[in-house]
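Write out this protein's structure.
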Amino acid sequence: MEGSRFFRTFVVSYLTLNIMIIDFDKIAEENIEGFKGGKGRLSTRNYTDEKARIMYSTLRPGASTGRHQHVGSFEVMYVVSGELTVHYDDREETARVGQVHYCPEGHFHWVENRTDHDVVYLGIVPALG
């Protein structure tokens, strides 16, 4: 009886919080050449709804995104594997495995892969407002 009540409470809490799993393996991969005016190939699997865009992306060796500004939103990029060179406003930094690049609303950034192996990252761009 006690276990049953715990289970119902857990299920109600789970449903109330709208917790969900995004399985990127079940999302078709899109290959983009010259993303936002950059060079080379970006492969990405994206989940998008009215609240956010969540991207599991692979930047190929020698590839880059184009410089762009986040207006009305921001971006967080978590490096899963590899080493990502980040250009943020007038600065250059390197984001490594387990590190996060944060581009606040209103700022410019672009990223590149200067290595000879893929860079995999998880990017999140929420809809603000």
